[in-house]
Amino acid sequence: MLSRPPVEPAPPRSPAPESPVAVEPAPIPWYRRHSRALLAAVTAAALVLTAITAFRWGASTSGEPAARPSPSKSAERPPTIAEIHAAMVPSVVSVYVQGKDKAGKAESASGTGVVANADGTILTALHVVRGATAIEVVFADGTRSKAAITSTDPGRDIATLLPAELPSLLVPAVLGSGAAIGDTVVAIGDQLGLTGSTTTGVVSGLDRTITTEDSGKLAGLIQFDAAVNPGSSGGPLVNARGQTIGIVVALANPTDAGTFIGVGFAVPIGVAVAGGSRPPLL
Fold this sequence. Notes:
Elements: H1 30-33, H2 35-57, H3 81-88, E1 92-100, E2 106-115, E3 122-125, H4 126-129, E4 132-138, E5 144-153, E6 158-163, E7 184-191, E8 194-212, E9 216-224, E10 236-239, E11 244-251, E12 264-268, H5 269-274
């Protein structure tokens, strides 16, 4: 408890009836004597409280509490594989080809493509449509259309197609760039004729060079371990943000079975859209 300081007794008053009576000032209360320190302490406490409030709730110029800040995009969780699949499927097409083999006998084949532009341009693997006498594409909503080859890039095994008809709602894929070893990737395509099959894995190598029977030497490829099989060619390789970063062109298998054993290859999307006899997207 605070106590008041001792006060010395006032000296005897001289009688002076015509003059004002001098009165000894009353002792200064402790809170006045320490008013500056008290004011400083109160001000500091108010500033601390204000800082805490501003830090917790954000600054506000109105008398009402400020709303909680929404999380930044960098803090948002990445999409799940199911969400990536749902977002990408409208951009993926099935590619059906009629042609003739080297002996002139009629044959058919199938692969995958991805809508890469608002005009309906489709990216696919060249070996899927090479030598075709007729090409049909089927969009995710069931729309079927004849398609023509508009550009080719044999050195990268890339071709572009332009459909004669487009669905009422065309959804081009979001194109991305860059890949690092260990990045999550998703491959979507018609594996073994199973439309829209979705598999996941990681980037397992970069700048790979391979030699294929159909396309010869291919360089600068992304290596990945998401499962792909015949029918996957031409489909998108998608990163964890749902962006298409490559076009699937090959798988490695030391046997003649042509099935997946853990190593697939894709042409980086930047190379795919820029190359060819008639670059489709520049």
